[in-house]
Amino acid sequence: MERRTPPRTKEGWYILHDFRTVDWDAWRAAPDHVRERALEEGRAFLADCEAVDDAEDGDSAMFAMLGHETDLLFMHIRPTMADVEQVGRRFDQTAFAEFTERADSYVSVAEVSDYVTEAYFEEDEEVENAGLKRYLDQKLYPQIPDAEYVNFYPMEKRRQPEFNWYDLPFDQRSEHMSSHGDIGRSYGGKVSQITAGSIGFDDYEWSVSLFANDPANIKNLLAEMRFDPSTSKYAEFGRFYVGCRFDPHDLEAYMAG
Amino acid sequence: MERRTPPRTKEGWYILHDFRTVDWDAWRAAPDHVRERALEEGRAFLADCEAVDDAEDGDSAMFAMLGHETDLLFMHIRPTMADVEQVGRRFDQTAFAEFTERADSYVSVAEVSDYVTEAYFEEDEEVENAGLKRYLDQKLYPQIPDAEYVNFYPMEKRRQPEFNWYDLPFDQRSEHMSSHGDIGRSYGGKVSQITAGSIGFDDYEWSVSLFANDPANIKNLLAEMRFDPSTSKYAEFGRFYVGCRFDPHDLEAYMAG
Amino acid sequence: MERRTPPRTKEGWYILHDFRTVDWDAWRAAPDHVRERALEEGRAFLADCEAVDDAEDGDSAMFAMLGHETDLLFMHIRPTMADVEQVGRRFDQTAFAEFTERADSYVSVAEVSDYVTEAYFEEDEEVENAGLKRYLDQKLYPQIPDAEYVNFYPMEKRRQPEFNWYDLPFDQRSEHMSSHGDIGRSYGGKVSQITAGSIGFDDYEWSVSLFANDPANIKNLLAEMRFDPSTSKYAEFGRFYVGCRFDPHDLEAYMAG
Amino acid sequence: MERRTPPRTKEGWYILHDFRTVDWDAWRAAPDHVRERALEEGRAFLADCEAVDDAEDGDSAMFAMLGHETDLLFMHIRPTMADVEQVGRRFDQTAFAEFTERADSYVSVAEVSDYVTEAYFEEDEEVENAGLKRYLDQKLYPQIPDAEYVNFYPMEKRRQPEFNWYDLPFDQRSEHMSSHGDIGRSYGGKVSQITAGSIGFDDYEWSVSLFANDPANIKNLLAEMRFDPSTSKYAEFGRFYVGCRFDPHDLEAYMAG
Amino acid sequence: MERRTPPRTKEGWYILHDFRTVDWDAWRAAPDHVRERALEEGRAFLADCEAVDDAEDGDSAMFAMLGHETDLLFMHIRPTMADVEQVGRRFDQTAFAEFTERADSYVSVAEVSDYVTEAYFEEDEEVENAGLKRYLDQKLYPQIPDAEYVNFYPMEKRRQPEFNWYDLPFDQRSEHMSSHGDIGRSYGGKVSQITAGSIGFDDYEWSVSLFANDPANIKNLLAEMRFDPSTSKYAEFGRFYVGCRFDPHDLEAYMAG
After folding, report:
1. Count of CB atoms within 10 A of residue B20's CB?
2. What integer pLDDT is reported at residue E42 of this predicted model?
3. Buried-exposed string B213-236: b where 16+ CB fall within 10 A, e elsewhere
4. CA B235 to CA E90: how far, in whole Å?
5. pLDDT value at D122 more than 80
């Protein structure tokens, strides 16, 4: 009945993935002036989100989604959980929201752990190395990468008799995380990611968002990871989404097909 | 085919977690006088709940939820199961209920067991120690802590060939519970909890509600517990919710985005 | 590839658990004369059911439910499956049905087996012992106990490599059933039950309905059973419901909150 | 990595199980002339189906269902898959369809295999034995038995480490099928069945439809089979339905409660 | 903690399976001129899709589906993921879309791997052999075969303690894939297929679409594969669909029953 050593973590900004379907029947049936007002309010809300007018800092982006009968993803990153709760709710005040339904969502917080950045935690929370500090800041206060495609999935580690991540000694977990990270790094320049913790906030333990200009790179990165023991033996996945980024000013073009 | 010794328990107040979505389309479309009456009736109901006007004793609180396409959580604690059945139903009589849909719910009862408070059960249900009595009363007749964030999840213990909680001897279970409780106590002052039994009342065996001013503490407490064998080997979780407390008088501000 | 001896069973009356949600929005919006007619037809239907006007024999009862977003349970016991099919359908003819939606249901038949009442089956279906006959009649032709609270859940026995009920010799199963029954009997006077078979009729193998004036007794009975090997190793449960009995004449009070 | 010998099969007619709920609210609200037209078109469609006016051969039957919030089952047997696709779609053209919603469905094809009728396949597809030919024809071109009650469930064989049907040698599978069939035959005269393959057509591997005048016989047959290793170790079941047959001309009586 | 060698892959065109239900109630109720415009726009959209007017290359086809309460499948193959995102969305702009609801969908990309075509990858992406090049082109840039029936299912490989595809050495996986392919080839001329990767794009790892003039061949091919270890031990399947191809010009006949 040995209790394993948990990783130490530091938390940064909170993230809301807000998935919506479009009510295309209502959209086709709406008179022009209703559509125009909806587009105007939708565009203004999304542009305000990208400009982070609603909070001290953060980032937001919009995506046209495929699959899962979902049309839109609004991804919001903000300093506090109360911030992301409110930005999600503010969208529902717009005339554009009438043409959407909530389809899915995910709540998580950007974090770093001492699996891979032990120095950070050992040195009394003082990061002297400037390169490390920049790396940690990117992890804790992420900006959404400028890429054509997005992928999202929630995941967790197994707690099974043969494959029990939470019963592995710290060193083995750290080694797994490092090997896992090597694969990610080998896709540097092709795929970038925002990973965030969600234990207690949503149904899985982490959310992963990948960004790439070629979606095949996303597939190949994840396929390669699947052969690494940290995944082949210890990972459990939720649903997988994929989509194409679009600018708030292209909302009208999006709605026109 | 040995039958294991069950814990002895004592039950206190009943708890209803009542999750709702807001029908924002209807809200935006409603004329002012309809909204005003809805807000008035909603505020009055929620304030009456907090004041426990409907029963001899108890507590209630309201939360703005994130994730799971759920907007509101009404948490009601009352002396009897009939009390919580009625308070849940009374909300549906208000004009505000028209702008909500039921999204989820959970029924449980506050309890203490002799896993950790054996003395209580040994001494013929007489608790002479004043400190112990206060502790037990807080467990059996809980008041909702005054904190900014709430977390809710249902859970149960596994009955699998390798990890069978219900086939462990009492002493081992008691040791697990004690080790598990140590982690909780190490977050004293940062996270407080209301735990309640639900075997026969709802689909899991317990409900857990955590309260904290910093949601990262909720995540870290639950992550740390995940490395304890009582969780890594014996726990199965349901869905996880998180939300922000709000005062009944802020219902109008909430609905305004 | 040994085939195990199945229990011999005798079947009695058929049981329909008919779960409904109330459409409170429609109810609040309905004019008084529509509500009055709905209440009148609802009350009349439910009173007719309790009086078993629609069949040769049986019993019916109504409950205000908590949890699972379900409001009402109509429990109907009748001599044939065609009887319960029709009584369920007849409700949908009433004006009250307009204010409800079907939420769940369960179909089963009261049965006795020779796990515990071997004598019954050995003696050429002749039961000479008057006490035994009364016991069997209560099992086969159950009347709904007069208690304040109801609990319902479907269950089945596992067919897994390590825990395979259907691969146990008859004697071991019989011993399990007897040990399981001992726990139930120890709650005599506090909790009574109606257990019915549903293999081929619905998704689980049995339905269990428990009745008690104190719901904590239902929880404690089921928790105690969970430590018995017949449950800890061999039982798989469906959803759990709990509710409060009410009289057809209190339908108006129920609908008024 | 040995590949096991699959059974040889011969396919006959295609089967569609088309499950519907009735929209009772719409039915109660409909004016008399709308109801009359709906009943007329519904009766005509169902009578045409029973008479197999839409294809070269086959059979159809209607059932009043219990449980699963489903009201009606239309079972259609036709020579080709295109036939059953069209007969399902033709119902939706009737005015009666407006008062129903699709609730579930299942697609399968009647088949015989050489697990139990090897001779058939050995002799160059020539069946000399007249009794065997009649048996095979009944299996391949089934007529719906004239019985009061129907049961339906989909099923499949397990592919697990300990219980892997698809890794058993042909002889063992054949022995299992034969033992399984013995139980079925012991209910001859009391329960008859239509079993059909659905690999690639629907989510399970077979559909089973049982017919009996006493539903207790259906339960007891399936319970007995559950103790046979072919089921206790190798079967996985989907949902179970039960219902009562009715004549197209009784559609009005059915809709009247 | 050995990391296994992943296959090298090359990606071709993207594929969207877009499943729809028909709203038959709305269709029956619609006035003639509304139906006519819907049919006209639906036919034009589908004919444009088949003619691939919306992208540089690709293919599209329409199917009348059975089962899963789904009526239509639109299968679109296009050079980029953005192409298939847009073609799916363009359908929702047509007046015909008003009579459909999205029921399911699947996103994947045609790919070849070096499990079976190692030469391709060894020779610096130069394919000298003309026959191999034609084979690879058919895999990467598939045209939808001209056959009466379609089958669709998503699948993935297991990552379990005993059956862990992702922990097998490359050679064993390659051998499995080759044995698996042998079965497929033995159905040459009877069943053709389009297989595509979907890791990171949708919930399973591959999508499979089979095409045949006799649906029994689809069933028998998949049944035979189920006895091959690559399936009996390592495959996990999603839902299975089956349907009949139809020409865009037959849309009116389809809607007329």
Report:
1. 21
2. 97
3. ebbbbbbbbbbbbbbbbbbbbbbb
4. 47
5. no
CA A11, A13, A14 angle in degrees (round to 5)? 105
Length of chain C: 257
Window 138-157 of E: residues touching D by CB (8 A cutoff) are 148-149, 151, 153
Judged against a pLDDT cut of 70, whether residue E127 lies above it is answered with no
ipTM of predicted complex: 0.95
Q: Give CA separation, A64 vs A88, B60, B193, E49, E219, in Å.
A: 17, 41, 40, 20, 37
Classify domain E9-255 by CATH number.
3.30.70.1030
First-residue to last-residue Cα distance in chain D:
59
| DSSP SS3 for A228 | coil
Contacting residues for C182 by C-beta, under 8 A, at least 6 apart: none
Burial C126-154 (b: 16+ CB within 10 A, else e): ebeeeeeeebbeebbebebbebbbbbbbb
Rounded CA gap, A89 and A93, in Å? 7
CA geometry: angle D209, D214, D215, nearest 5 deg? 50
**Closest to A80 measured CA to CA, from A104, A55, A111, A59:** A55
Q: Residues near B59 by Cβ (< 8 Å), separated by ≥ 6? A: B50, B52, B76, B77, B142, B143, B144
Chain A nearest CA to E190, separation (Å): 31
- Does the beta-carbon distance from E242 to D5 stay under 8 Å? no
Q: Which of E75, E103, E78, E91 lies closest to E41, judged by CA?
A: E91
pLDDT tens per residue across all 257 residues of chain C: 689 999 999 999 999 999 999 999 999 999 999 999 999 999 999 999 999 988 999 999 999 999 888 999 999 999 999 999 999 999 999 999 999 999 999 999 999 999 977 666 765 556 667 888 888 999 999 999 999 999 999 999 999 999 999 999 999 999 999 999 999 999 999 999 999 999 999 999 999 999 999 999 999 999 999 999 999 999 999 999 999 999 999 999 999 99
| Interchain CB contacts (distance < 8 Å): B and C | 125
CA distance A46 to E88: 23
Judge residue E150's burial from the number of C-beta atoms within 10 Å of its C-beta, 0-12 exposed, 13-18 middle, 19 or more buried: buried
Nearest Cα to Cα of residue E195 among E184, E187, E203: E184
What's the maximum distance between 2 C-alpha atoms anywhere in chain C?
A: 67
Chain A within 8 Å of E201 (Cβ-Cβ)? Answer: yes
Round to whole Å and give the CA distance between E12 and E138.
Answer: 10
The type of residue at E231 is T
Q: How far is CA A190 from CA D63, E76, E174, in A?
A: 59, 27, 28
- Determine the pLDDT at residue A135: 87
Partners of E226 on chain D (C-beta within 8 Å) are 6, 159, 166, 199
Burial-class residue A188 by CB neighbours within 10 Å (0-12, 13-18, 19+).
exposed
Q: Which amino acid is at C36?
A: E
Q: How much helix, strand and coil, in percent to the nearest 5, is found in chain A?
A: 40, 30, 30
Domain ranges (residues) in chain D: 9-255
Secondary structure of residue C178 in the 3-state scheme = helix
Question: What residues of D are in contact with residue E172 (Cβ under 8 Å)?
Answer: 1
Instruction: Work out the pLDDT band at D125, boundaries 50, 70, 90.
Output: low
A221-to-A135, A143, A149, A190, A217 alpha-carbon distances in Å: 21, 21, 14, 10, 6
Task: Find out whether D211 and D195 touch, Cβ atoms under 8 Å.
Answer: no
Cβ contact D224–C84 (<8 Å): no
- B-chain residues within 8 Å CB-CB of A48? none
Amino acid at B242: V
Q: The tokens of A212 are what?
A: 């790439």
For chain D, which chains pass the contact test of at least 3 CB pairs under 8 Å? C, E
Q: Are A100 and A19 within 8 A, CB to CB?
A: no
Bridge partners of B207, per DSSP, are B154, B196
